[in-house]
Hints:
Structural class: mainly alpha
Amino acid sequence: MADIHQQELATRTASLLNSGEYSDLIITCGNREFKVHRNIVLPACKVLATACSGEYKAGTGGPIDLSEDDPNAVERMLRYLYTGNYDDTDHEANEEAGKTRIPPPTSVQVVPDQRSETSSIASDALEKVATAPVHVKVSTLTNNVLVYSLADFHDLPLLKNLAQTKFEVRAADEWSVEDIITVLPIVYATTLDSDRGLRRIMQNVCLRSMDHLMCHKGFRSKLKGDASMCFDVLDAVQMRSEERDFDNDRLKGVDAKFKRVIEWTKAQERVFKSLLEQSTACANCSRSLEVSVSNGATTGWQGPLIVKCRHCRAKLA
């Protein structure tokens, strides 16, 4: 019952964002305009609340300008603030079908820059964004990366966790080398070196496909542009090597144990053959030889077999 009411509430608040009815604040991003509601957006996002304080333009009734961010990522962030979730699949709002812009980590103009630490590839991406449009193929992975970066800047940890979870679920699917080469630089361009969330996931993705990646010229050229990315990939290579060494050691242990099992089995087989060659009757009760067998080990499985006559229970071996 509670789920029905929560769904109804989410639908109702989403309709406010869709229609802009009763809006008292405007957020602009590129050529898109979002009519939002202060009592919903500002309590949830301190960065936007700061943008609406008196010292900034939005505090005097002007719009909040997020023109350096990706419009679709901004829409997903707002939808999360209204409903607690967002759709990470592509939709018709894209101005160019199948493409979206990589935003720089320093994004909101109306608040002070909070990102002083960036990797070299992030700096390169910032320069390219400033001088020319940078486009990549839109995918659900890229959508979640952009939301993750936006949530980090706007200090929305729950949205950031949600974006990471959605990204990790999508990342569990099969990857092509081209997919990795496309998404990996975007992850490193939009996250700090100290932020291991998406980078850890991409490291595991690279680990699964390392043999194919290391043979790809495009992948190697990407590594040359960023020390952090190169270090993480080398770390993945080391992890792969350690896993293989562990697997080899484990196989050696299994092989040694298997050999011990064979030796033990052959030893017990010799006991039976010797017993049957000596007599076909029990030496204690003289009845036809029928035996019961049990393991005499106190621990483990490699103890001697105990052979007894099934009639008189006398120990025969």
